[in-house]
């Protein structure tokens, strides 16, 4: 892997490397990255999806590596971590900035007010102790509401030259340090902002390593998404209320009420057209926000206090205005040429009433990534899960890369049951950026260490919770494993149903996500061997428990996106309209990624043994089953429940 990364950096080509857990992939990319940075006097950016990996790189891998490589490179390489401005304490806001208005959500309750007061007190104390102002270093953390009082977005920041405490600013210090570093560690969100927004937030760099690259598309999609709600409009109107003529601010507040009324008449779901009265309500919001922005007038440089309030108001107003414009523009092109997907979320669903919100997200981010991320530099993408259906092309297509010109190099033992990839574009584009895929395998002997059990005899999963046969099957497997089970369910409802049923039927403790903080539950699960842990999406990717506490991973159903998921359904429809296989390239790809991530929870060290059991029979029987199975590690596979239960009893000892 190190050689492949060095080659990609040298030739300027892009590289996708799949490297299983325990390969040491961070060392394999950091060594060539550090060498390149020092010999070429350049900066390399390493981007991660999770804070855990960021910490591992900055606290463990980079300190050791820079020490070890210093004699060979002539000096000790420098590294730094850089996040979005919102992640750093803003000293100006802390001491002088305008607090949120008291009508802010949660502040009517006196208990919430005193809890917030205590958190603010802690933040003031912490501000004199911290050397970085980085929110992730504040343990225990504070609520989002409290953090919002002491931080600013890039739009809200006064700018270092105007800010009275600019020389002490934590965000500016982190940026300056990143500017001097050879390697800058950041997250996918900041990488996306740097690439997409048209203004640089990262130091100039010629190589990017995207670790946890299976998360890239989702993270970039969220950065490129926006939403409009009555609450956001009211907050913007309130913020500018004291700075402009009252009538102008009132007009915006009324436009917010109008939007709430129009949204109240709609059910949650995708919008294929912007009909009246919603179109009129969004246009009214756009015009009222524009009037407020005009009324705020230009910045007066001598008035710092006034500038702060103006900047905070302007940031919200611009966001409201720009989102309203985007929503209105989204529907202008013919349906097949639209760039954005719009939907209503919230409202009344599943016994919950949440304020209705209009959301907008890009149909695809491939074009953006291809032009702005892959265009100007060499990109290395890596993860334990990059081949889906046995090929890199599935994810590469989502990144905007053409089909690989050369077949991926595979390590022995890698998934081989390859299906032809679904056609996402209608016509393969062979002129795009050049890239290669390489699977460097894994230290695990999958066939000897793990069994994949496909419960072919089960009924298909139902709409109304888990069928009784699933609960019987689950109980039998958990008994045989002596507990030690991670249950990954496709909905919280199913996780709770299974928890309640098994608590009555087995003697082992069963924890359920939501009983406590997920971190605490995972710790209890790891420390007490027979304990089981059941939950949903965040457990599919976030559990790393080597050893005997985890010997059985059970998944209830293939995790397809919900049929009413607005973005997935729009993406699927767009692929189908272009003559591709929408189901395979959107729904099955989504499911394959999650299945691979879920199955990846089983073997976390080379001594681990166990079973991945999938109760949904469609994995064994449906036509798309082979594509999904080829996305899983190459475990020894069986359909026989008795074989699996005996194996679990043997492992259990
Ligand atoms: S420069 Fe911006 S982020 Fe830094 S202290 Fe000033 S206002 Fe806050």
Model description:
- This protein is α/β, with parallel strands linked by helices.
- Helices cover 46% and strands 14% of the residues.
- The chain has a seven-stranded parallel sheet, sandwiched between helices.
- Helix 2 (25-40) packs across helix 3 (51-73).
- The chain is globular and about 80 Å long.
- The structure holds iron/sulfur cluster (SF4).
- Iron/sulfur cluster binds next to helix 4 and helix 7.
The main sheet comes to: 7 strands, parallel
**Which residues form runs of ≥5 with pLDDT under 50?**
101-106, 412-428
Number of strands: 18
The value of Rg in angstroms is 26 Å
- In what order do the strands lie side by side in the largest sheet? 3-4-2-5-10-1-11
Bound molecules: iron/sulfur cluster
Q: Mean pLDDT, as a whole number?
A: 89
What is the CA–CA distance across the termini? 37 Å
Shape: globular
Q: Specify the helix fraction band.
A: 40-55%
Give a quick summary of the entry.
This protein is an alpha/beta fold and 653 residues long. The chain is built from 25 helices and 18 strands.
């Amino acid at each position: 892997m190190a050689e492949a990364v060095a080659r990609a950096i040298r030739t300027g080509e892009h590289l996708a490397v799949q490297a299983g857990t325990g390969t040491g992939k961070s060392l394999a990319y950091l060594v060539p990255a550090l060498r390149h940075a020092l010999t070429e006097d350049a900066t390399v950016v390493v981007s991660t999806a999770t804070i855990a990996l960021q910490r591992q790189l900055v606290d463990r891998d980079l300190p050791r590596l820079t020490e070890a490589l210093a004699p060979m490179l002539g000096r000790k390489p420098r590294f730094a971590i850089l996040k979005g401005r919102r992640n750093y304490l803003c000293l100006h806001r802390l001491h002088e900035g305008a607090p949120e208005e008291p009508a802010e959500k949660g502040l009517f309750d006196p208990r919430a007010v005193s809890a917030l007061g205590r958190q603010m007190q802690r933040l003031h104390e912490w501000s004199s102790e911290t050397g970085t102002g980085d929110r992730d270093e504040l343990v225990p953390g504070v609520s989002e509401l409290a953090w919002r009082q002491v931080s600013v977005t890039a739009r809200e920041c006064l700018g270092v030259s105007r800010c009275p405490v600019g020389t002490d600013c934590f965000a500016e210090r982190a940026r300056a340090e990143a500017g001097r570093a050879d390697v800058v560690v950041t997250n996918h969100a900041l990488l996306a902002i740097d690439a997409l927004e048209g203004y640089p937030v990262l130091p100039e760099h010629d190589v990017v390593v995207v670790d946890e690259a299976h998360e890239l598309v989702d993270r970039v999609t969220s950065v490129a998404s926006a939403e409009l709600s009555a609450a956001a409009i009211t907050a913007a109107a309130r913020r500018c209320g004291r700075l402009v003529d009252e009538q102008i601010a009132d007009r915006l507040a009324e436009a917010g009420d109008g939007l709430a009324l129009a949204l109240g008449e709609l059910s949650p779901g995708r919008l294929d057209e912007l009909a009246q009265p919603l179109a009129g309500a969004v246009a009214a919001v756009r015009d009222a926000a524009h009037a407020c922005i005009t009324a705020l007038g230009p910045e007066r440089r001598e008035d710092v206090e006034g500038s702060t309030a103006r900047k905070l108001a302007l940031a919200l107003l611009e966001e409201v205005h720009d989102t309203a414009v985007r929503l209105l523009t989204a529907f202008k092109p013919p349906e097949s040429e639209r760039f954005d997907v719009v939907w209503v979320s919230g409202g009344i669903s599943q016994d919950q009433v949440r304020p209705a919100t209009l959301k907008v997200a890009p149909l695809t981010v491939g074009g953006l990534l291809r032009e702005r991320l892959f265009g100007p530099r060499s990109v290395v993408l890596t993860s334990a899960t990059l081949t889906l259906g046995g090929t890199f092309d599935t994810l590469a297509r989502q990144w905007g890369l053409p089909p690989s010109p050369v077949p991926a190099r595979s390590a022995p033992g890698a998934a081989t049951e390859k299906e032809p990839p679904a056609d996402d574009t209608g016509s393969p584009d062979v002129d795009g950026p050049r890239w290669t895929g390489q699977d460097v395998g894994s230290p695990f002997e999958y066939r000897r260490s793990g069994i994949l059990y496909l419960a072919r005899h089960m009924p298909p999963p139902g709409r109304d919770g888990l069928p009784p046969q699933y609960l019987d099957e689950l109980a039998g497997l958990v008994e045989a494993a002596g507990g030690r089970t991670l249950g990954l369910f496709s909905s919280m409802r199913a996780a709770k149903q299974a928890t309640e049923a098994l608590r009555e039927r087995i003697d082992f403790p069963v924890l359920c996500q939501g009983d406590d903080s997920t971190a605490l539950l995972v710790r209890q699960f790891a420390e007490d061997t027979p304990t089981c842990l059941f939950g949903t999406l965040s457990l599919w990717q976030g559990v790393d428990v080597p050893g005997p506490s985890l010997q059985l991973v059970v998944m209830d159903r293939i995790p397809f996106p919900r049929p009413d998921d607005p973005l997935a359904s729009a993406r699927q429809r767009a692929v189908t309209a272009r003559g591709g296989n929408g189901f395979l390239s959107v729904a099955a790809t989504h499911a394959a990624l999650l299945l691979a991530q879920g199955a990846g929870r089983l073997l976390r060290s080379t001594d681990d043994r166990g079973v991945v059991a999938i109760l949904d029979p469609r994995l064994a029987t449906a036509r798309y089953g082979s594509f999904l199975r080829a996305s899983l590690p190459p475990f020894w596979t069986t359909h026989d429940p008795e074989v699996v239960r005996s194996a679990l009893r043997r492992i259990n000892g």
